[in-house]
Write a structure and sequence with these properties.
By secondary structure, the protein is of the alpha/beta class. The protein folds into 3 domains: 3-109, 3-Layer(aba) Sandwich (Rossmann fold); 117-319, UDP-N-acetylmuramoyl-L-alanine:D-glutamate ligase (3-Layer(aba) Sandwich), CATH 3.40.1190; 329-479, Alpha-Beta Complex (Protein-Tyrosine Phosphatase, Chain A), CATH 3.90.190.20. The protein is 33% helix and 23% strand. The strands form 3 sheets. A 10-stranded mixed sheet has the order 8-7-9-6-10-11-12-13-14-15, with helices on both faces. α1 runs parallel beside α4, α9 (291-306) runs antiparallel to α10 (311-319) and α13 (382-389) packs across α14 (413-419).
Length: 495
């Protein structure tokens, strides 16, 4: 996407948009934006073919949700909002332009909502949803009442967006289509930079250049935060500092500005000691496991410190961090099998998530139900994705989810399943969605951990797996569905 075609941030407010219609309003990013507009008292409608869980909440807030795509959905509308997932020949998008309505990309509409606030924008190849959630909770704990729009829902809060009264606006900045270049942050947080979205950028060097361009948009009175442990983040920090820009780093690296030490992770969570400018900030604890979670939280600690907020607020918020839906989200236990859902689809984030799930599984087996996300990524990173999936004991693979993409012969799940270095009896490609629960119930044993992982639709599968396991238990003469704690005593919601 060429950002030059879009309206620069700061020239419109949300109130300037009039009656707003969102195409594909059920998606997590679009539903969050719709929620934000509704809580600001703006009239909102949307169209969505699938009944996503978020839609009930939008209706409760007064949103009008159409279950079909029709030209008549635009009657009385002033502004139509679309995402990069919507094709340019979409019926409603074509009709909006024919009528001469204001048509905005999601990022433009979000930029309008941020006008007049100090934006904290979180970017990165992976980890940005969790990190955005952590920064938001820290600012909330500090009493700043930030507005926020996150590409996921904070567990137990049940929302990925909020219209706050404070000066800060926390936003997850998406690099996949270059739309993060529309924002003008006061604080830019960049978790990591790895090869991804090469259908947009072509190569890693061009991707890194885009992140540098994003960082340069940061307000001169603000600051930039990067990870010293990430090679891409380290290169970015060196480049920006050479230009005289204010960059702060975090990580376990000896030269990190916020240095972490003694990091330890178990099924019960992660903890580490933090130090900055010769000052000990004490021990930071999170109830969610994974060293990558520790690194994500460190960026929130550093951001709060640099904004002059109490470190105690960061400690308290992170100590109670409930996790983010679809990020290591515990769905339940049925017939002695623990089921999680995880959004990871890039090989690095997949490996981190699966290694953490191994900690949770203990002596049990790890069964992965994976739906790859995008054909180009599955093709270009096939070897790396296959290696990540090999961390599992067993693999149930679905076809690639790639809206608008044409699968060529030999591409997709057929090629990926062959590349995964697991024995033939421990991996299977299941073509029909409805056949997956039975396949998982056949393979899973008491004490195993099952995770649904990958593209957005697979998040709907977890409950079906639990039902299949419960039915299996009932057929065997007994059933157990966990609702309080895991068998090992870990929290019911691991995030």
């Amino acid at each position: 996407m060429n950002t030059a075609q879009f309206t620069p941030a700061g020239t419109m407010t949300a109130e300037d948009l009039g009656r707003i219609h969102l195409i594909g309003v059920g998606g997590v990013g679009m539903s969050g934006l719709a929620r934000l507009f509704l809580t600001r008292g703006l009239p909102v409608s949307g169209s969505e073919l699938r009944e996503w869980p978020s839609l009930a909440g939008l209706r409760a807030l007064g949103g009008t949700i159409h279950s079909s795509h029709e030209a008549s959905n635009l009657d009385g509308v002033d502004t139509v909002v679309y995402s990069s997932a919507i094709p340019q020949d979409h019926l409603e998008l074509v009709e909006a332009r024919r009528r001469g309505l204001r048509v905005l990309h999601r990022s433009e509409a979000l930029a309008a909502a941020m006008t007049g606030r100090r934006t904290v924008a979180v970017a990165g190849t992976h980890g940005k949803t969790t990190t955005t959630s952590m920064v938001t909770m820290v600012l909330q704990q500090a009493g700043t009442d930030p507005s926020f729009v996150i590409g996921g829902e904070i567990s137990e809060v049940g929302s990925g967006a909020h219209h706050g009264t404070g000066e800060y606006f926390v936003v997850e900045a998406d690099e996949s289509d270059r739309s993060f270049l529309i924002y003008r942050p006061f604080v830019s947080v960049i978790t990591n930079i790895e090869a991804d979205h090469l259908n947009t950028y072509g190569d890693l060097a061009t991707l890194e250049a885009a992140f540098a361009e994003f960082a340069r948009l940061t307000d001169p009175e603000g600051f930039i935060v990067t990870c010293a442990d990430d090679p891409g983040g380290r290169r970015l920090a060196e480049t920006l500092r050479a230009e005289g820009r204010l960059v702060w780093t975090y990580g376990e690296a000896p030269d990190a500005d916020l240095r972490l030490s003694g990091m330890a992770s178990s099924a019960r969570g992660v903890r580490y000691l933090a130090e900055i400018e010769g000052r000990s900030l004490g021990e930071i604890r999170l109830p969610v496991p994974g060293r990558h979670m520790g690194l994500n939280s460190a960026s929130a600690v550093l951001t709060a410190y640099l904004l002059g907020l109490p470190v105690e607020a960061a400690e308290a918020a992170l100590g109670a961090f409930p996790g983010v839906r679809r990020r290591f989200e515990r769905k339940g236990v049925a017939d002695g099998v623990l089921v999680y859902d995880e959004y990871a689809y890039h090989p690095t984030s997949m490996s981190l998530a699966l290694q953490t799930l191994r900690e949770v599984a203990g002596e049990g087996r790890l069964i992965v139900v994976f739906q790859p996300y995008r054909l180009y990524r599955t093709r270009d990173l096939q070897a790396e994705i296959a290696a990540a999936l090999a961390i599992a004991d067993e693999l149930v693979l679905l076809e690639v989810f790639g809206p608008g993409e044409l699968r060529q012969p030999g591409e997709g799940a057929a090629a990926l399943i062959e590349a995964v270095p697991l024995p033939a009896d421990r991996k299977v490609f299941v073509e029909a969605w409805d056949d997956v629960p039975a396949e998982v119930a056949r393979r899973a044993r008491t004490g195993d951990v099952v995770v649904t992982m990958g593209a957005p639709p697979i998040s709907l599968l977890g409950d079906q797996l639990l039902d299949a396991l419960l039915a299996r238990a009932g057929a065997a003469g007994g059933a157990a569905l966990g609702t309080g704690v895991d068998p090992d005593g870990a929290p019911a919601t691991a995030g």
